[in-house]
Amino acid sequence: MSLQKSITLLLFAIILIGCSNKDSDHSNDGKTVFRYNESAGINTLDPALVRRFEDFLAVNQIFNGLVTLDENMNIVPAIASSWDISNDGKVYTFYLREDVKFHNHAIFRDENERKVTSKDVVYSLLRIIDPTTASPGQYIFKNIDRGVNSEFKGILTEGDYIVKIYLEKPQPSFLYQLSLPYCSVVPSSAISFFGNDFGENPIGTGPFEFKKWKRNVKLVLGKNADYFEKDKEGNSLPYLDAVAITFIKDRHVEFVEFTNGKLEMISGLNEDEKDELIQADGTLNPKLENDFYLQKTPWLNTDYLGILVDDRIPNVKNSPLSQQKVRQAIGYAIDMEAMVKHLRNNIGTPATTGFIPKGMPGYEKYAIEGFKYDLDKAKKLLSEAGYASNKDIPKITLVATAEYTAMCTYIQKSLEDLGLNVNIDILSPSYMGQSIAQFEATFYRKSWIADYPDAINYFQLFYSKNFYPENGLNYTHFKNNTFDELYELALIEDSTALRYEYYKDMQQIIHDEAPVIPLFYAETLRFLSKKVSGLKGNSLNMLNLKETKIEN
């Protein structure tokens, strides 16, 4: 490390230490701090490298991309004030705002270096594409045209405030994908300065800037005084002075901290505290109503049973699950509505309309008649598969993590009523992931959370050219030629109505072949202090704090 770099980092550390006390919590000077907990912790704050949902939430406070999503899942401007798409759908032209600055930091020599220009955007997007970055967001730019039209680059500047992106073929989901945190704009000087440590020293353009981070303890973000967005009345955003994220692993301790007024929000539903937080009908426990409120919205998250269907794999070949009618029988043998009502206090929606969850744009247009509880039909399908007696059926094992033990026990009983002999294998999250990846688990509880609000994000899991691990996320190794053809058509179809027709046909194929059994579509649950207002979310469960206020 150079002497200059060492001195700069030392000065930066001194600044952080000096401001840590006033930024880390509510203080007597009237500053407002929004405090929430991430029990799973945070791995990195480099937007190009985020892999976990918890990281996404924090990164979204620090960075902006060209575009973003509002609470209604509409694409809206961010660093780009507007954009054009060519008639053939292959060239995107973005016109940048001229008042966006990177967070103030000692690495910048003057104010001009802080101004975001088209070069910063191009650098940031090419960094995602660069194989040496190893960004999980590389897939967004698989369709980039690096031919003659784009001077063999794919992404070009046109003056200081215009960016052009060239695609090989139309890609209707492209704007949605550009709204992902991977596509955040970062300063090249910061990447050069911090190198691999940028993820612990992030510099962006977002409403909050990095202050301090003690791993497994707390992350503190402070208000960006130079943030470019304003509210409808012309007031500068954000309203909050700081955001403090703690990393308490014990969910009971988190609950106690919240009820004692030391957190403004907790998210999700911990099994141990479920009845303390909500009633059987999914509404807030009356004991909490004086001080707290519940914010509930659809979440693009489908919980399902995954089934490995590739009979070239030895432990699939002799399994009853290799038969389509057995898989269908499982779908009809589980009462999803009763499961959501009794095990989840009516949180979520029974997945009876296919694999694509409620809350996805256009959901009603391609919903199908999915699995609904019908034990007689399930037994008939099982018999047609050649299993008239449960003595003839080999035992199958359902793999899950500990937090889903109650649900799996319910499923086990349902399938025993059908005539199947089911064993439950509870594994740690890491070992379960390994078991699925190595094709040891043939039947497992899993969920898929959308990256962006287009159903194609779900259908990629069943495209045969996406077989895991070589080419993509098709863990079940499902293959259907008609599905593949429809998927390829949907990828490039500009007509929304026609694309939705393809989606409905694909949903039906997935239902008929049953490589997955959808269980329920999740909902986001946020329990908030009544002192908090203006917090916005959307069906991707993103956390928008720039218009959030706290009453002192």
How is the topology of this model organized?
Layout: H1 3-23, E1 33-37, H2 53-62, E2 67-69, E3 75-77, E4 80-85, E5 91-96, H3 111-114, H4 118-129, E6 155-157, E7 162-166, H5 174-178, H6 188-194, E8 208-214, E9 218-223, E10 242-246, H7 251-259, E11 265-267, H8 274-277, E12 292-307, H9 314-317, H10 324-333, H11 336-343, E13 349-350, H12 363-366, H13 375-384, E14 396-400, H14 405-418, E15 422-426, H15 429-437, E16 443-449, H16 456-459, H17 481-492, H18 496-513, E17 516-529, E18 532-533, E19 549-550
Helix pairs in contact: 10-13, 17-18
The CATH topology assignment of the largest domain is Dipeptide-binding Protein, domain 1
What is the alpha-carbon Rg in Å? 25 Å
Output mean pLDDT: 91
Name given to the CATH homologous superfamily of the largest domain: Dipeptide-binding Protein, Domain 1
Reported CATH architecture of the largest domain: Alpha-Beta Complex
- Strand fraction: 15-25%
Shape: globular
> Helical segment tally?
18
Largest sheet: 5 strands, antiparallel
Stretches with pLDDT under 50, minimum 5 residues: 1-28
Cα(first) to Cα(last) distance is: 45 Å
CATH class of the largest domain: Alpha Beta
The overall number of domains is 2
Count of beta strands = 19
Q: Helix- and strand-based class? A: alpha+beta
Helix content: 25-40%
